[in-house]
Amino acid sequence: MQDIVYCLIGESGSGKSAVAELLEKEIPGLNVIHSYTTRPKRLEKEWGHIFSVPLDFMRAKQEGKVVAQTFYDKNYYWTEKDQIQGKGASLYVIDPFGFQTLKIKERYLGHRAIGIYLKVDTDIRIARMTGERSSQEISRRVKNDKKSFRNFQCSYVVDNNEEIERAVRRIKGIILKESLGNELFESSRN
Predict the structure, then answer these.
(1) At what angle do helices 122-129 and 135-148 cross, to 10 degrees?
(2) Going by C-beta distance under 8 Å and a sequence separation of 6 or more, which residues neighbour residue 164?
C-alpha cells in the first residue's frame, strides 16, 4: 500500500484546521499529521501542532528527517518521515511552499501528495479571523497569502464559503476515491 498524503491548503481563515478535525472523526484510520512548529501556542488546547524550538528543526533537518517544511511569520513548520511512512492515508494542513517541498520528495520517499485547496472569499476569511487576531495581523496575513498563492495549483478545489460539513463531505469523497484499494477505503465501507 502506497502512502498518500492529502494536503489541505488554503489562505488564513479558510477553515483548514476545522475541516481536518472533522475529517479525523469522519474517516476511521485516517492519519492526521500534526505539524511541528517553532511558533508559540495561541490557545491552551491548540489542535494541529507539536510545539518545538528552532534547534529541533535544525536537528531534524540535519538528520534527514524533514519531508515538508516552510518558514512563515518568523517560525518554522515541518513534518518528518515517520509521520508519513507506513501510515497509509494521511491528512496534513500545509501551505503552498510546504506542499511543493513534499511533492519534490515524492520521488525518493515513495509517497503521493495530493493537494486539496479550500477556496474561501477574502471577506469571509477576514470575518473568520476577526476576534482571534489583530486587524494588523489580519492585513499582514491577507497580503502574504496573495503572494504565497500566486500561480498555485492543486489537484482539487473545494469551496468552503458556506457550511463546513459540505466541504468535509466533498473532501471525504475525494479521499475515499483516491484511496480506492487501500485499507482505509475498505474499512470505511463497512
Answers:
(1) 140
(2) 15, 18, 19, 22
Report which secondary-structure segment, H or E, holds 76. strand 75-80
Pick the closest to residue 83 from 7, 173, 13 (CA basis). 7
Could you report the per-residue pLDDT of 27-46, keeping only the tens digit for each?
A: 999 999 999 999 998 878 88
Q: How many CA atoms lie within 13 A of 59 on its CB side?
A: 7
The per-residue pLDDT for 184 is 46
147-181 as b/e: b if 16+ CB within 10 A: ebeeeeebebebebeeeeeebbebbbebbbebbee
- Confidence tier at 108 by pLDDT (50, 70, 90): confident
Residues paired with 35 in a beta bridge: 49
φ/ψ (deg, to 5) at 96: -55, -45
Give the span between the Cα atoms of 168 and 83, in whole angstroms.
23
Which candidate, 47, 28, 43, 65, places its Cα nearest to that of 172? 28
User: What number does CATH give the domain 4-181?
Assistant: 3.40.50.300
CA neighbor of 75 nearest in space, from 112, 34, 126, 39 = 39
Taking Cα atoms as reference points, which of 7, 8, 11 lies closest to residue 145? 11
Longest dimension (CA), the chain: 49
Which residue type, as a one-letter code, is found at position 128?
R
